[in-house]
Amino acid sequence: MRLHEVVPWGRNLTEYQQMFTLSESDLGGRILGCGDGPASFNTEMHQLGHDVISIDPIYEFSAAQIRQRVEATYNSIISQVKAQPDEYIWKTFQSPDELGRSRLASMEQFLADYAQGRQAKRYIAAALPKLPMFNDQQFDLCLCSHFLLLYAQQLNAEFHQAALQTLLRVAAEVRIFPLLTLDNQRSPHLAPMIALATQLGKQADIITVEYEFQRGGNQMLRIHTPNDR
Predict the structure, then answer these.
(1) pLDDT tens across 64-121, in order?
(2) Tens digits of per-residue pLDDT, 172-196?
(3) Cα separation, 193 vs 199, whole angstroms
(4) In the record, what terms sit under GO molecular function (predicted)?
(5) Per the confidence metrics, is the pTM higher than 0.85?
(6) Which residues, 6 or more positions from 30, have their beta carbon under 8 angstroms from its beta carbon?
(7) Domain 3-224 bears CATH identifier 3.90.25.10
């Protein structure tokens, strides 16, 4: 991975709870965060005594390098949001500046925890579609935030199919949010992924969630064994 191609953008535990409708039972399981980047989700969960491992290629870099990249890209991201305010729902955040403050706070929490978390193997530099370091059904739940489905043009159908098979190998349940592409269209990979899940004997449900920031992005895909809770 080349760091100059990365756009770090961190979300917090409350957002994860809303994006993935996480119950207390969910939070108490063994969780894999896929593509977490500089989110404070892992940090906050660790502070609460929960079991989370996060994977992302960005974790091959040091805290100083990630901080430098955050500082290099932050103003550009906020400027893009300010230029397209109608693309977003201003409920969780009242303004682009409030969004920015929240993101920076999350990333600061992550960076303060990063060195210790990486040493404890809570942050692992890894990337889909293959995760050979994990055992079959090692996790109760995999959460994939703003990666699969979203980057529909950058990641092709074969990648999505292989990634889903890997996630279903390592986790009993997979939740993916959002179901839209970067240009706010329904991801073309959604239907094939549902078909693959069904072929593998899983149940795939589209669930409307409390969280909506990207306009229309208020649904997640939940893939699990039929009749599971």
Answers:
(1) 999 999 999 999 999 999 999 999 999 999 999 999 999 999 999 999 999 999 999 9
(2) 999 999 999 999 999 999 999 999 9
(3) 10
(4) methyltransferase activity
(5) yes
(6) 51, 138, 139, 140, 141
(7) no
Distance CA 211, CA 218 (A): 6
Residue extents of the structural domains in the chain: 3-224
The closest alpha carbon to 122, from 53, 63, 39, 35, belongs to 53
Residue type, 159: F
pLDDT at 123 (0 to 100): 98
Query: Which residues make Cβ contacts (< 8 Å) with residue 33, sequence separation at least 6?
Result: 39, 41, 42, 52, 53, 54, 55, 142, 143, 145
Which residue is it, tokens 């240009």?
Answer: 183
* Residue 3, pLDDT above cutoff 70: no
First and final C-alpha spacing in the chain? 39
